[in-house]
Write a structure and sequence with these properties.
mainly alpha; globular
């Protein structure tokens, strides 16, 4: 099947950059490196050496390989970005931000008579568990959730079929994001064999048709990686921002917000929780946002973090309570007046 065309030059350039739309493959082609069950292999690593993050690509060799002239010619926020990509950084970034409006999702819950924000939260929580179980990239999770919301904004779905939509969305996202995606039997296994292979493939086709084969969603996770890289954010602090972003992914109210601003708000909250960095001119230059541009979103995300924990949706909190994720889910929250 042929993907619907999109403005190609910026997307092609973005795909060539380590920064961004398509991260380096995290999955080895060796069958021995993938597990069919259990938590992500990174959870067994005390030093987090296999832990993928924005900073894992920031190697000293990148700057060492630059000539002095090349390094000095880069704008300050771009010193950690490949030389061949830095020239086009702002064009790529502005292109991705401009695509947010194109992929904006409308309020669909009133149309979904059989569903509720709580049902969606439970589904996203399950998708987080599925992402860990199948050792999928985080971009796959975020794209999978986007596909669910996009599909639900067009098609009425019963509670019985909701998990099938989530599973098929993860499968599509994995095919798009992963170097080696899980096979369909793996996807069916996390559904407790509730669906058949035919159920899954039919739903896959339905989703792709409904979204018109448009899979290039600008993702909040991608924006967060970029911001952290520009600002040299330490890995534990970035992990805290990732927790904020992923935890609020379950809340229906977040569906309609700008992904680039969601990422900014999550990073800003992490800064305030750890009191380690500030939203300085470097970040304003890199993101295009001042604090006043996203502070209302930061307050909204912080309110979600303060909600009473629900036993039925604990996957994200449990995940980021692990030592390999620096136990960031246990860090005390801040009040909105401190933001």
């Amino acid at each position: 099947m042929k993907l619907a065309p999109a403005p190609a030059p910026a997307l092609v350039l973005a795909n060539k950059c380590k920064l961004t739309v398509k991260p380096k493959c995290m999955v080895s082609n060796s069958p021995n490196t993938r597990r069919s069950s259990g938590r992500r292999s990174t959870l067994g690593s005390s030093d987090g050496s296999l832990y993928m993050s924005a900073l894992s690509d920031v190697l000293d060799e990148e700057l060492t390989d630059m000539s002095t002239t090349e390094a000095q010619s880069l704008p300050v926020p771009l010193v950690n970005i490949d030389v061949e990509c830095a020239t086009y950084f702002y064009e790529i970034f502005e292109y991705l931000k401009s695509r947010e409006e194109y992929f904006k999702i409308r309020d669909y819950m009133k149309m979904q008579k059989s569903l509720s924000p709580q049902a969606r939260a439970i589904l996203v929580d399950w998708m987080v568990e599925g992402q860990e179980h199948l050792e999928l990239d985080h971009e796959t999770l975020y794209l999978g959730v986007k596909l669910v919301d996009s599909y639900l904004s067009h098609i009425k779905v019963s509670k019985k079929s909701l998990q099938l939509v989530g599973a098929a969305s993860l499968m599509i996202a994995a095919k798009y994001e992963q170097g080696m995606s899980p096979n369909i039997e793996d996807i069916l296994s996390i559904c407790d064999e509730s669906y058949t292979l035919r159920n899954m493939t039919k739903m896959e086709v339905k989703i792709l048709k409904v979204i018109n084969f448009e899979l290039g969603f600008p993702l909040s996770y991608m924006f967060l990686r970029t911001y952290a890289r520009c600002s040299n954010t330490p890995l534990p602090l970035l992990t805290l921002a990732r927790f904020v972003l992923e935890f609020t992914l379950m809340d229906y109210s977040v569906v309609f917000l700008s992904d680039s601003k969601l990422a900014a708000a999550a990073l800003y909250i992490a800064f305030k929780m750890k009191k380690e960095q500030e939203w300085d001119d470097k970040l304003v230059n890199c993101t295009g946002y001042r604090i006043e541009d996203f502070i209302h979103i930061a307050h909204a995300l912080n309110n979600i973090l303060h909600q009473e924990p629900r036993q039925c949706i604990q996957a994200v909190r449990n995940k980021y309570s692990d030592k390999v994720f620096y136990e960031v889910a246990k860090i005390p929250l801040v009040d909105n007046k401190e933001l």
